[in-house]
Amino acid sequence: MRILITNDDGITAPGLQVMEAIATDLAGPDGEVWVVAPAFEQSGVAHCINYVHPTMMSQMGPRRFAAEGSPADCVLIAIHDAMKDTPPDLILSGVNRGNNSAENTLYSGTIGGAMEAALQGFPAIALSQYYGPGNRDLANPFDAAAQHGADVIRRILDTTPQENTDYSLFYNVNFPPVPAPDVRGIRLAPQGRRPGVVFGTEPHIAPSGRRFSWIKGGDQQVMANAGSDAAVNLEGYISVTPMRADLTAHDVMDSLSGLNT
């Protein structure tokens, strides 16, 4: 198997090393693992692509590239440049430092990389490691992802249905904030919403007198709606959420039919 990996924390991120180990396990002795990752951290860029200026790509080693762009840019560069003669069988994005459950999904560059892969017609999975009191002080906070990642991906690949749809499936996987031995299992879960948790800003005045704002997130330990991704993560389960890039609110299409003329 030939696997492409990217992330949004940057090519030097510890989570990328975890993902490389997972991908090497999956690819097997006769497989290949390619890395095309952002040269600098790109957290929070979602599905951004840089089509108004060129993106520089540097080769860092065999099958390893850094690109000065977003995760979605990296996927495009890999497919249409670095790997154009040897396309991947699978594209993995992560392992992200911090969860991409619930509302975080909408901002995530990790998700953006997997989404672009799906739009390009490739099987794609995003992986993220929830942080919390149970794992953030471990020698390896990615312990749950490192120990369970390959198995979860194999299970997803074995059960994914054959489709012919306009918007292909991709998957959002979040590992719970616990050590690997404390993981309770896997739960298929919809995207949740942590009540009252939104991004905000913290203003600062620089010594020069100029005003700046830091964007900051909300409390990630707030329990989301029961059975959703963030909820099962905080209960110690790995969440698997199937997704599509179609943003249509299908549930209200019929009720809004009166808009038609």
Radius of gyration: 19 Å
Shape: globular
CATH superfamily: Survival protein SurE-like phosphatase/nucleotidase
Strand content: 15-25%
- What are the segments in which pLDDT stays under 50 over at least 5 consecutive residues? none
Specify the helix fraction band.
10-25%
Distance between the termini: 52 Å
Lateral arrangement of strands in the main beta sheet: 3-4-2-1-5-6-7-11-8
Protein architecture, described:
The protein is α/β, with parallel strands linked by helices. It has a single domain (2-194, 223-259), classed as Survival protein SurE-like phosphatase/nucleotidase (Stationary-phase Survival Protein Sure Homolog, Chain: A). 23% of the residues lie in helices and 25% in strands. It has 5 helices and 11 strands, in the order βαβββαβαβαββββαβ. The chain has helices at 14-27, 71-82, 109-119, 143-159, 229-234; strands spanning 2-6, 32-38, 57-61, 64-67, 90-97, 124-129, 170-175, 185-188, 200-205, 211-216, 237-243. Strands 3-4-2-1-5-6-7-11-8 form a 9-stranded mixed β-sheet, with helices on both faces. Strands 9-10 form a two-stranded antiparallel sheet. A hairpin with a 2-residue loop joins β3 and β4. The protein starts with a strand and ends in an 18-residue tail after the last strand. The model has no long low-confidence stretch (mean pLDDT 96).
